[in-house]
Automatic annotation (TrEMBL):
<dbReference type="GO" id="GO:0030170">
    <property type="term" value="F:pyridoxal phosphate binding"/>
</dbReference>
<dbReference type="InterPro" id="IPR015422">
    <property type="entry name" value="PyrdxlP-dep_Trfase_small"/>
</dbReference>
<dbReference type="Pfam" id="PF00202">
    <property type="entry name" value="Aminotran_3"/>
</dbReference>
<dbReference type="GO" id="GO:0008483">
    <property type="term" value="F:transaminase activity"/>
</dbReference>
<comment type="similarity">
    <text>Belongs to the class-III pyridoxal-phosphate-dependent aminotransferase family.</text>
</comment>
<dbReference type="InterPro" id="IPR015424">
    <property type="entry name" value="PyrdxlP-dep_Trfase"/>
</dbReference>
<keyword id="KW-0808">Transferase</keyword>
<dbReference type="InterPro" id="IPR049704">
    <property type="entry name" value="Aminotrans_3_PPA_site"/>
</dbReference>
<keyword id="KW-0032">Aminotransferase</keyword>
<protein>
    <submittedName>
        <fullName>Aspartate aminotransferase family protein</fullName>
    </submittedName>
</protein>
<dbReference type="InterPro" id="IPR005814">
    <property type="entry name" value="Aminotrans_3"/>
</dbReference>
<keyword id="KW-0663">Pyridoxal phosphate</keyword>
<dbReference type="InterPro" id="IPR015421">
    <property type="entry name" value="PyrdxlP-dep_Trfase_major"/>
</dbReference>
Amino acid sequence: MHTVRGEGVWLYDESGRRYLDAYNNVASIGHCHPRVVQAIAEQAARLNTHTRYLQEGILDYAESLLGTFPDALQQVMFTCTGSEANDLALRIARHYTGGTGVIITRFAYHGVTGDISSLSPSLGASIQLPAHARTVRAPDAYRLGAEQAGKLFAEDVRGAIADLRASGIKPAALLIDGIFASDGIFADPQGCIAEAVAIAHAEGLLYIADEVQCGFARTGAHMWGFQRHGVQPDLVSLGKPMGNGQPIAGVVVRPEVLEPFGRSMRYFNTFGGNPVSCAAGQAVLDVIHDEGLQQRSTQIGAYLLGELRKLSERHELIGDVRGAGMFLGVELVTDRKMKTPAAEQTRRVVNGMRERGVLISAAGPLENILKIRPLLTFQSEHADLLLQALDEVLLELA
Ligand code: PMP
């Protein structure tokens, strides 16, 4: 696809054809949202430079952002990308704990810096896990069972900690994406990561919540993905929808965790938290609030989930429908009993949807899970367009 323009929930290609964007977690509050565009333009006309000098917009934005977090998370450092945010979060966690060990999920994605790419097995088979990393199974309620998913996740984390110690490596952090986007989109049962987080804390590890995918109201009922699970992170990494396309990301952290790091070394990120990016970030928060997008994410997300489940009654290929808010996964299988991944069919569904003018994608190690991540501004008529296209494509495949 060659895209040339975006407006609201629509993307336009070079021929002027429009596509319903159900796969965008960057322009999450709508393409080219007028309030974001205005905020960027006004700030760009006033001042845009590095972050060496004080600038009120940065402080105002930091306070607005921190106002959306639980009280314990009181400080933020800005970066340009989610990868940098995870990289920084890990450095802070290692400095605080004096350890190096990191626990991630088997098919995690956390970014592209040297350190973080080595902790992103989903980048490809040539990623060599470093000696200080251990992987655990994501809480896959579909394949492991809803009661077992959280228990096994906790057991795996406990085992990984013991294994690191047995190798003479002090564990520093449990780093997890709150919706396990690359592992296959696992949102439920709510609270399924709580036991693992409790074990990590009891063992002296810090919990880094990677909210690059599931933050900013994406999962509906909460602003932050970790809140669905009733857990308290020590560090939270943010990115993607933070500036609705303007590069801005960051780490939100407990002050006592940051303090020793801040005291012992400098951190200067030339563009991280620059005035224009912060203006965009502030506009995004304002729009989420003023347009009730968290509520919309909950309502339309629940509607989509329900309707997708109805579709599964008519289409044998659908093995499981899951997700939270506007982050949905539809796992396709050729055999419901055996849960045989239907990778080829998934690719055809994604392409068939695009041919019908609806953009989605696929996730999971075998890419047999439809990844549906509509803009938070979807109305029910947009949800219906998506559902109708999916129904047609599945019928055609059958
Ligand atoms: N963490 C997660 C969960 C992500 O999905 C991504 C980006 N896909 C990142 C981190 C890295 O963010 P960025 O591409 O902005 O570096």
